[in-house]
Amino acid sequence: MQPLRIGILVPPMLPVPPTSYSGTERVVDTLIRQLCGRGHHVTVFASGDSDVPCELVPVIPRSLWSMGYHGDVGTYINLTLAAAWREAHRFDIIHSHVEVLGFLFARHCPTPVVTTLHGRLDVSGIPHLLAEFTDIPLVAISESQRRFTPDANWVAMIHHGLDLTPVPFGERSGDYLAFIGRVTPEKGVVEAIELARRARMKLRMAAKVYDPEEKVYFDQVVKPAIEEGVVEFLGELTPMKRDPVLAGARATLMLGGWPEPFGLVAIESMAAGTPVIARRAGALTETVEHGVSGFLVDDIDEGLLALEMVGDLDRAAIRRQAIERFSPERMAAEYEEVYAGLLGERGERLSVVPA
Fold first, then answer.
1. What is the pLDDT of residue 69?
2. 263 and 219 within one domain
3. Are residues 195 and 280 in the same domain?
């Protein structure tokens, strides 16, 4: 593929790459580095404390959350869009990761814009937006994410990719269960604690507690389980400390009933060789192969049955499959196909002389 001039828009809440655990910024950082390595000329619109191997347009000096800001982020994303509008003429294509706030920009920008949506799409009026903006090209991160809006302009479904090779391999099944994520009801915290309690196993939780609601939920749900001896709470860990927790676990629990748009924890656990016991919901039905890399369950009883069976799974095969399926190279190649397709379509439209 010929080198392209690509503009990439990133929400300014965290730097790229993020210094703490996050999803969108880690995936976008992986994509940026892959595109640069493939010879493309990449420009990133992000916070000024980002560290990318290409041109950076700092839309604000420092990322919002690093400054302790937890208010509305819409204003700052509009700053990102304004900066990209000024510079749009410099690019062959612009790749937006600022969710639905970039839809008007994508419709009217003179440069082709493709939008990858990272969140759930069934809430906050988003179905109505998708019904209105059927002219802008969209990429889904799972089939589950886009299943309720088949008439939107989906140009691709691209599963995330990460460099999973540095994740340590847990050759032997451990004697505890792992939970990685946020302390919120939709992440299945109560269910994970109950499964660990009934299985008489320790639950090691590497989780963040930021928002006031999360702090209240922690006090109500997690703290009593810590005092009971069921939970060992580790707080938010860096990847260097978090990944060994995954590698040493009997299984990683992802029992939330909400529709995960993707679920990076699942592929990181599998890269460590550790099976995932997940609620049969959202994109986990695509990333976790039942009976091969883990088990998909509907309730705690099925979770207990799965826990009896995870010891029979081949942890080395789980790791190999995860590294192959969710590689950065595969993700970047699929995005290159999207770029090429959109630029080809645009050229065809421009070449048509009106009657």
1. 82
2. yes
3. yes
DSSP one-letter string for 166-202: TSPP--S--SEEEEEEESSGGGTHHHHHHHHHHHT-E
Strand partners, 204: 178, 232
What is the domain-level CATH number for residue 337?
3.40.50.2000
Amino acid identity of residue 96, one-letter, is S
- What is the pLDDT, as a whole number, of residue 352? 38
* Domain-located, residue 114: yes
Q: From edge to edge, which strands make up the β-sheet containing 138-140?
A: 55-58, 41-46, 5-9, 93-96, 113-116, 138-140, 154-157
Q: Dihedral sign for Cα 180, 324, 165, 33, please.
A: negative
Range of the domain at 305: 176-325
Alpha carbon 282 to its chain's center = 13
Same domain, 119 and 241: no
Q: Is residue 280 part of a domain?
A: yes
CA-CA distance, 22 to 341, in Å (whole number)?
A: 30
DSSP assignment string, 247-293:
HT-SEEEE---S--S--HHHHHHHHTT--EEEES-TTHHHHS-BTTT
- Give the pLDDT score at 194: 97
Could you tell me the two tokens for 184? Answer: 């919120």
Residue 168 lies in a domain: no
Together in a domain, 146 and 47: yes
Give the pLDDT means over successive 10-residue stretches in the chain (355 positions).
Answer: 95 89 88 98 97 97 86 93 97 97 97 96 94 97 96 97 96 94 92 97 92 90 96 90 95 94 96 98 97 97 97 97 98 98 70 38
Q: What's the pTM?
A: 0.92
Domains contained in the chain, number:
2
Judge whether 171 lies within some domain. no
